[in-house]
Amino acid sequence: MGARLLARVLPWLVGVVAGVLALGPALGPGHVLRYDMLFVPDLSLPTVLAGADGFPRAIPSDAVVAALSLLLPGDVVQSLALLAVFAVGGAGAFRLLVRLVCDGPAAPGCGRVPGAVLAAGAGAGVLYVWNPFVAERLLLGQWAMLLGYAGLPWVLWAVVRLASARPVAGLAGVVCSLVPAAIGGFSSVVLSALTVGPQALAGPRRLRNAGLFAAGLAVVSLPWLLPSLTSGAVTDSAGVEAFAPRSDTPFGAVGSLLMLGGVWNSGAVPPGYGEPVTATARLLVCAVSLAGWVWWLRRNRPVVGAGLSVSAVLGFGVALLGVCAPGRELLAALIDLWPGFGPLRDGQLYLAPLALVQALGAGAAVLWLLRALPGDGGRDSRGLRGRGGPGEEGRSERDPGGVSARPVAEENPGRSAVPLWRVVGAVLVVLAPVVVLPGLLWGAGGRLAPVEYPPEWLEAQEAVAADDRPGAVLVLPWSAYRGLEWSGEPVVVLDPATKLFDRRTVWNDDLSVGTPDGGRVVVTGEDARAREVARLLEPDPATGLPADRWLSDPDALAERLGGLGIRHVAVSASVDNRFWSGAESLSTVVEGADLTLLEVDDQHIRADKDPLSGLEVTSGLVTVGAIIWSMARSGSSLGFQRPQPRTGRGARKEIPK
Predict the structure, then answer these.
(1) Neighbouring residues of 414: CB distance < 8 A, sequence distance ≥ 6
(2) Helix extents (H) in 164-301
(3) Is the dihedral of CA 629, 631, 633, 634 positive or negative?
(4) How far is it, in rounded angstroms, from Cα 594 to Cα 586?
(5) pLDDT digits (tens, 9 = 90+) for 409-466
(6) Residue 316, phi-psi category: left (phi > 0), alpha (psi -120 to 50), beta (remainder)
(7) Domain boundaries, the chain
(8) What is d(CA 429, CA 119) in angstroms, rounded to the nearest whole number?
(9) Containing H/E element for 442?
């Protein structure tokens, strides 16, 4: 029982330990604010479900956070969400490798798991959650997308099981495994389709499997897919230039992408990652991992070999489009033709399947070092699977469900022990991802440090919540991302006021990105209402406050804002030029060093209470219901289903009563 428990717990332990080492102080009290990672106290669930006028990409993750915030403090919810990225991803890659080695479709029901295979699983789990892709996306604050990335190994195995499962049970397993992607939103679903789609088309019953997989994707996509059809959102092709991959190592953009780096934002590069020594070491780890994958493909042809290889090549090809001018022109033309091609702008995102290939390749390298695959001079296939073949039913060391941690030679009398250099090499492969990427340790060197919201922010939140009259909140300065003086180390973050209040907020969702030549690219936002407000304010680019012509007549501005349905104005910065001073139609509700909350006179307000969107609520209920059904039907955890009854030699026959 102890060995069986170890086999179940060890994958999760690897992921949790990696998460604690990576996050460190981020797991403490307070909220971590960085770029897109914005958690606020008491996020309002009705406001999230009401949606906005732009593309509803954040609805699933925000809805889950808001629902959990009804039970737990917001900072605890954030800590659990961040830790889940490492726990789910590490355990998923670990268990996927073990399943592929011990429990392929041709041999369902894995017996004992040899210690060498557990070591290989640890190598896969560590590399999958400890690499430049995870580090850079984490420093960009894209925790929801990373949660979907963490679920990819689970989805892949669920699709593998489709070949031998009944359609209803197979669909339940797929939907269950897609839970992280459902929370992550559209980027996570797109990554799941890219990573697992070729596998669904590669095996037997490909049409049926592909149809079931597509149905699962559609079900978990409903919370953002249906509202997007009526959102009126547009996609700016200027984002192709802004989100193009960049070189963050001495090996150029292509080399950086091969090493799972190359993110478009230089501020998201882990400390010390681009140094020649660490970059060269990381390149060596990448080479070993890819060599391990190729060796495994040629040696044992794992069931996911062809499909996952195709996914990795396709994803790498999409990433390369942003490196060259013709590729960027093609992407821009596609986006101008149809906004649905917008997700292709951020090409580095599609390195996710390559990351899974490298993780499994690292595990395969450990298998080679420990001689743990058939024909390696170590265990044979029967010993590896923990089953006795013909004439071996009496093997005393057979222990179904257990874990063999003994050296290979101990279990195979007459064979030589694994040389010490191989054992040392296996340990180095397992630990190498951490060693060559130390910049991710302990909150990325302190970059992921939690902070407390100042009292005036919480006071403003309570004041707006106490006002039951309809009307939106206008957030100024008119800039989506900015530095917060109270957040400790200066960091760019999405203005917290955009999510702080329990009603619709209007803010500048344009994105300004610096280019390598020193220029700037402005990617137009998607919110039609925000564009209307921007035309009214004519904000000063330097301060983000309304144009000078409004300073002499703030009452006229208040009247115009009220006509647009604005009831409150949150100025989330300390400014000397107070455009509201002397205005009779703008009264101060809360005033502090970093936040001032203004209220527009009631006589100017023409606004209706924001209703809950029927599309969001209905699609969300359908998705939640489907997930609950899938968990009950599959009896599994994220798609690694219970072993099916054995029907081969030695299987016990059950007599119905």
Answers:
(1) none
(2) 167-177, 179-184, 186-200, 206-228, 239-242, 252-258, 276-300
(3) positive
(4) 18
(5) 334 444 457 899 999 999 999 999 999 999 999 999 999 999 999 999 999 999 999 9
(6) alpha
(7) 2-229+240-262+271-368+620-634, 471-604
(8) 10
(9) helix 441-446
Separation of alpha carbons 285 and 272, rounded Å? 17
| Residue given tokens 């026959």 in the structure block | 653
Q: How far is Cα 322 from Cα 65, in angstroms, rounded to an integer?
A: 33
Task: Produce one character per residue of 491-511: b if its CB has 16 or more CB atoms within 10 Å, e if not.
Answer: bebbbbbbbbbbbbbbbbbbb
Cα 25 to chain centroid, rounded: 20
Closest CA to 400 of 104, 25, 651, 84: 651
Tell me what percent of the residues of the chain surpass a pLDDT of 70: 83
Taking the CA atoms of 317, 310, 361 and 124 in sequence, report the sign of the dihedral they define. positive
CA distance 335 to 239: 10
Choose among 654, 574, 152, 69: nearest CA to 359.
152
Give Cα 148 distance to the centre of its chain: 4
- Terminus-to-terminus CA distance in the chain, angstroms? 29
Give the Cβ contact number of residue 518 at 10 Å.
6
DSSP state for residue 131 in the 8-state scheme:
S
Q: Strand 511-514 relative to strand 566-571: parallel, antiparallel, unpaired?
A: unpaired
Nearest to 312 by CA among 268, 257, 255, 253: 257
Query: How deeply is 654 buried, as exposed, middle or buried, from its count of CB atoms within 10 A (0-12, 13-18, 19+)?
Result: exposed
Compute the distance between CA of residue 90 and CA of residue 70 in angstroms, rounded to an integer. 28
Residue 69: the pLDDT is 96
Return the CA Rg of the chain: 27
Whose CA is closest to 116, among 488, 380, 502, 397? Answer: 380
Q: For position 306, what pLDDT does the model report?
A: 96
